[in-house]
Amino acid sequence: MSLFLALIIVAIVLGLIGAVADGLLFLLFIGIAVLAADLVYLTLRTRRSIRRRPAR
Question: For residue range 34-52, what is the model confidence (pLDDT) as tens digits?
Answer without folding.
Answer: 999 999 988 988 887 666 6
